[in-house]
Every structure is written in structure tokens, then in C-alpha cells.
């Protein structure tokens, strides 16, 4: 390997300018990831993490995840355990639930900065990291209580460690590599080590073919090249790291079995990761769907990312180029091969694309000539045009969508429009690419910060589940904690916000409801009106609604409703019949 890769050391020759870039990244990352972290109510799968952590704290059993008292082994335990210290310190709030993801997002960006700094220089590493931190989809998942960013961090810690270990063959690097793989396996299953293994195979195979092309296709050359690429696996430090990593993996795998007496967690690991990879039972999107997801996750830098991939063809041939492109190709290949596909699965690829783009931007800023520079010029101009369109979208929302109207939309829209025009002028005259790029980064930083603070407040106007649950809790307190039932399967977010000390009973049919009614004549039903079968709507229409959760002003669609039974006596008797 060349010297740049060999000397991958996080403390090597830090100059004051590099330390300043590091501080700027930390400050920008914490600002974007922590600002207004509790403004948005829980969404999507966050409810599962929230309820499981809450019930772990209530029961004191940290090895048996439950949702409303029902065992739920959909994900390994470490992604739940990662939340526990923050909840114990700061309370069971949205911000504390999301804190591990925010730190994982910042850690991933820092990994990209360190890797970019040693491969291409501090400025390229800074460009890559700040581009990643100002990608709204990356920020969204970095502000979401889930295992996605934790899994991404594990992948990039492993890649950083193995990059150093392959050339230096130091035990500490190899130990970090294998231990990060073991821990990552219990965040979202063994996806992290599998993805990294795929990237290593691509990198090693690429190097082997390069050597064969230079020296001739002979068995001796093939043998020597394969040994050169993978010698670290069989070295003494490599074997020692492997044994210790395997020991940590087995400890984490079998500890829940020993303490609970159940093999459910092990069977889950097999079903959710190995079986799903080869024979998916859900999330079977077509492979080409990842094209659109990649474009979305890279926005608003999509044009620059595409241009950077094109420009990578002109990079100097060598190990640095092979590592950067090979790791991205390996990550992408893993998710393409897998039969189970969803948009956010591709999240670990985005840092790799940011690293490629950081290198391309550094070359573009330094080089004012050449066809590759013209491609980057056009991509940067397209990005400015995209930002101008975004400012227009803010004006449109303010003028024509009263439900989401707020004065800050005009202010941010004007700032973005003026700034984008300024960046376009700087680019068009080809005098200040660095200044133009700095303006673009600043504009996207402002948009992202506004979007995740004031923008989230505006969006919460029409997301009424949190307020609905608080009102429902008051009615439940009046009726009695046991005098409430949830029709069919409940929403984990609703269960979390109801904040009950015990599980809510489920009723799945009209017969179940009647049995519940006989026991609690003044009981309450929590009903998702979208889940009511058409042949039972007449029955529910005879119940008395107390509280509705409504949708937007345009739809007024009720979802969750608190209902009570009609009063007793003859009418109530007829209803029971």
C-alpha cells in the first residue's frame, strides 16, 4: 500500500488548521443533530424502541424485550441497551431516546473525516464529512431512535480499523476490527460484519486482478497476490483478534439464553438475517429501487455526487483509489444481492459516496481547468438551481398551504434564494470555487437547521397522536386503569405516550368487546378507525366517541378514537344482545 494508507493514525501530525476543521465539524454536527431533538413526536418504528426501553425499566428485565407485555425479539438487544443510560440520566423523553443515534451519526461523520484526511488530505476529509452532515436524510436517521445509524457507525469503524490493520498489522487495530464486528452484530444483526467482508473481498479481488494483469496470469502470481491481500487474516495478531472477537460474539449471543432460558434471541438472529437475506419474507422491493433511494439520500448534493463518481475515472491508479471505490462498490453489492430491500437499508453507502465526493470537491477546488472540472462546475450550478427551487417551495407553502404557514418560511426562502444566486455568480465567473462551495454548505446548513427545528414545529401541527394520547390518559384515569382495552393490534407510539404502568388488554373481536363490556360497563375502547372491518362498522357506530385524533385540515380523517359504551339499563342490555 502507498504511504497515505500506511500511516492511517488519528493523532498523526495534526496541524492547527486541521484541528480547526475538526472543531468546526464537531460544532456543526452537534448543532444539527441535537437542536430541537424532542420537537418532533415519535414516528415510524421509533415507538418500538421507546416502549421496549420503557418496559425494560419498569420490569427490571433487560434481556426480554416486550411491547405492551408481549415478547418482541425483532432486533438484537444492544440497540435497546444503548438507549438505557441516556434515559436513566435524562428521563424517558424523545431526545434521550434518540441520543445514541445522534452520537452514531456524529461518529460516522468523524470516521469519514479521519479516513478522508489520511487518504486525500484534511480538506477532502472535511468536505466529505460536512457533506454527510448536511444531507437531510442522513440527519433524519441520525435523529431517529433506531438501529440504523448504530449499524452504519459499526460498519465504518470496522472499515477504518481494517484500513490501518492491513498495512500495519497491529493487534490493536485488528482487535478493534473484530470487536466492532461482534458488537455490530447485536445492533441490527450481523449485517455490519457481512457488509465489511463484502467490501474487503471487492478490494482484495480488485488488487489481485491488477497484479495478475501486470505480472501475467500464472498460478504462482495468483497465490502470491492473494496472500498479499489477505495475509492479515492468518497473521498472529489477526488470529488473536479473531479469537477475541469471536469470544465476544458468543458471549453476547448466548448471554440472553443463559439468563432467560429461551433460544428466541438466537433463532431471531438466524431468521431475521440469514434466512431473510436468501429468502426474504417482506420488504422485497426491486433492486433498481435503490437508484431512487440513493438519489434521495444524497440530496441536495445528488448532482455533485454523480459528477464525483464520473470524475473518479480520472483518479490516479493505486491503492487509495481502489480502497475508496472498492468499499463503496462492496457495500452496494451486498445490498443488491440481498433479497430483502428497503430504502433506508442503503444508508451505510452514503458515507462512502460522501468520501468520493469529498475527494472530487478537493480536486475541483484546486484545479481550475480540464473536462472533469467542467463537469463539477455544471453539477455545482445544478445544485444552486435546486436550492433556488427549494426557496420557491417555501414561498409556495407560505402562500397556498395555510395549515403549514409560518413567517420563517419567507425569511429562510429569501436567504436561500439570495445565497444560491450569489453562489451561482461565483461559479459562473470561475473565480471563487471554494467561496461558492462554502456558501452552498452554509445554505444547506441553514435549511437543515431550520427544517429540524421550526420546520418540525410546523409539521407537528397536524401530527396529533402525542396530544391525543395525553387526553386519552386523562379519560383512562377517570375510568380506572384496568377499564380500558385496545381494539386489535395497537400502535407502539400510542402505547408509549399513554405512559401506563401496566399492559393494556387487547380485544380482537366483537365477542371480546362484549366480554370486556360485561366486566367493565363503563370501560373505554381505544380504536384505530382504519382497522375497523366493514362488516362491524354498525356496531362501532353505536358506541359513544369521546376523543378523536384528526389528520390534516384537508382530510379530517380520524384515526385513533376513545369510545365508551352506551349507558346501562334496557338500552345497554339490547346493545349487549
Shape: globular
Largest sheet: 5 strands, mixed
The N- and C-terminal alpha carbons lie at a distance of: 81 Å
Helix content: 55-70%
Write the layout of secondary structure elements.
Blueprint: H1 3-6, H2 16-34, H3 46-59, E1 66-67, E2 70-71, H4 78-81, H5 84-90, H6 94-120, H7 122-133, H8 136-142, H9 148-168, H10 171-188, H11 191-215, H12 219-234, H13 236-260, H14 264-278, H15 289-298, H16 302-311, H17 319-337, H18 349-366, H19 371-400, H20 408-428, H21 433-452, H22 454-459, H23 465-479, E3 484-487, H24 492-498, E4 505-507, H25 510-519, E5 524-528, H26 537-541, E6 544-548, E7 560-564, H27 569-576
Parallel strand pairs: 3-4, 3-5
Antiparallel strand pairs: 1-2, 5-7, 6-7
Explain what you see.
By secondary structure, the protein is mainly α. It has three domains: 364 residues, no CATH class; 84 residues; 113 residues, D-Maltodextrin-Binding Protein, domain 2, CATH 3.40.190. The protein is built from 27 helices and seven strands. α9 packs antiparallel against α10 and α23 packs across α24. The longest helix has 30 residues. The N terminus and C terminus are likely disordered.
Search tags:
disordered C terminus, globular, D-Maltodextrin-Binding Protein, domain 2, 27 helices, mainly alpha, 577 residues
Short description:
By secondary structure, this protein is mainly alpha-helical.
Amino acid at each position: 500500500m502507498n504511504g497515505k494508507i500506511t500511516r492511517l493514525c488519528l493523532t498523526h501530525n495534526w496541524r492547527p488548521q486541521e484541528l480547526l476543521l475538526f472543531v468546526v465539524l464537531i460544532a456543526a454536527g452537534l448543532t444539527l443533530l441535537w437542536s430541537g431533538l424532542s420537537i418532533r413526536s415519535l414516528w415510524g418504528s421509533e415507538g418500538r424502541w421507546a416502549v421496549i426501553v420503557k418496559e425494560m425499566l419498569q420490569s427490571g428485565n433487560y434481556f426480554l424485550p416486550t411491547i405492551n407485555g408481549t415478547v418482541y425479539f425483532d432486533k438484537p438487544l444492544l440497540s435497546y441497551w444503548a438507549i438505557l443510560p441516556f434515559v436513566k440520566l435524562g428521563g424517558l423523553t424523545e431526545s434521550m431516546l434518540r441520543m445514541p443515534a445522534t452520537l452514531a451519526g456524529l461518529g460516522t461523520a468523524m470516521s469519514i473525516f479521519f479516513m478522508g484526511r489520511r487518504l486525500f488530505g484534511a480538506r477532502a476529509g472535511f468536505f466529505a464529512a460536512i457533506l454527510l452532515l448536511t444531507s437531510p436524510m442522513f440527519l433524519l436517521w441520525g435523529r431517529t431512535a433506531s438501529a440504523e445509524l448504530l449499524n452504519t457507525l459499526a460498519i465504518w469503524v470496522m472499515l477504518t480499523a481494517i484500513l490501518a490493520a492491513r498495512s500495519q498489522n497491529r493487534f490493536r487495530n485488528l482487535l478493534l476490527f473484530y470487536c466492532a464486528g461482534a458488537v455490530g452484530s447485536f445492533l441490527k444483526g450481523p449485517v455490519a460484519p457481512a457488509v465489511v467482508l463484502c467490501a474487503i473481498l471487492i478490494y482484495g479481488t480488485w488488487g489481485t486482478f491488477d497484479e495478475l494483469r501486470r505480472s501475467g496470469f500464472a498460478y504462482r502470481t495468483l497465490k502470491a497476490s492473494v496472500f498479499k491481500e489477505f495475509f492479515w487474516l492468518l497473521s498472529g495478531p489477526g488470529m488473536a483478534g479473531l479469537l477475541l472477537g469471536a469470544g465476544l460474539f458468543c458471549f453476547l449471543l448466548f448471554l440472553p439464553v443463559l439468563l432467560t432460558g429461551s433460544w428466541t434471541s438466537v433463532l431471531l438472529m438466524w431468521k431475521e438475517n440469514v434466512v431473510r437475506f436468501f429468502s426474504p419474507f417482506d420488504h422485497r422491493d426491486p433492486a433498481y429501487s435503490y437508484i431512487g433511494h440513493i438519489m434521495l439520500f444524497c440530496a441536495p448534493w445528488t448532482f455533485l455526487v454523480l459528477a464525483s463518481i464520473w470524475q473518479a475515472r480520472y483518479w490516479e491508479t493505486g491503492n487509495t483509489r481502489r480502497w475508496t471505490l472498492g468499499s463503496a462498490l462492496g457495500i452496494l453489492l451486498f445490498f443488491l444481492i440481498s433479497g430483502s430491500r428497503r430504502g433506508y437499508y442503503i444508508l451505510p453507502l452514503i458515507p462512502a459516496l460522501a468520501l468520493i465526493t469529498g475527494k472530487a470537491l478537493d480536486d475541483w477546488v484546486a484545479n481550475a481547468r480540464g473536462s472533469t472540472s467542467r463537469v463539477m462546475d455544471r453539477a455545482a450550478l445544478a445544485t444552486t438551481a435546486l436550492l433556488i427551487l427549494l426557496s420557491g417551495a417555501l414561498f409556495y407553502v407560505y402562500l397556498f398551504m395555510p395549515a403549514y404557514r409560518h413567517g420563517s418560511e419567507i425569511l429562510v426562502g429569501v436567504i436561500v434564494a439570495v445565497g444560491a444566486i450569489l453562489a451561482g455568480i461565483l461559479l459562473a465567473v470561475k473565480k471563487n470555487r471554494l467561496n461558492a462551495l462554502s456558501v452552498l454548505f452554509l445554505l444547506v446548513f441553514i435549511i437543515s437547521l431550520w427544517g429540524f427545528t421550526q420546520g418540525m414545529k410546523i409539521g407537528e401541527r397536524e401530527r396529533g397522536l402525542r396530544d391525543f394520547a395525553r387526553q386519552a390518559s386523562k379519560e383512562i384515569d377517570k375510568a380506572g386503569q384496568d377499564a380500558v382495552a385496545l381494539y386489535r393490534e395497537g400502535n407502539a407510539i400510542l402505547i408509549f405516550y399513554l405512559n401506563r404502568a401496566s399492559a393494556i388488554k387487547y380485544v380482537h373481536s366483537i365477542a371480546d368487546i362484549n366480554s370486556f363490556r360485561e366486566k367493565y360497563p363503563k370501560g373505554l375502547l381505544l380504536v384505530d378507525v382504519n382497522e375497523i372491518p366493514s362488516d362491524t362498522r354498525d356496531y362501532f357506530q353505536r358506541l359513544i366517541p369521546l376523543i378523536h385524533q384528526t389528520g390534516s385540515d384537508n382530510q379530517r380523517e380520524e384515526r385513533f378514537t376513545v369510545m365508551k359504551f352506551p349507558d346501562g339499563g334496557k338500552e345497554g342490555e339490547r346493545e349487549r344482545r
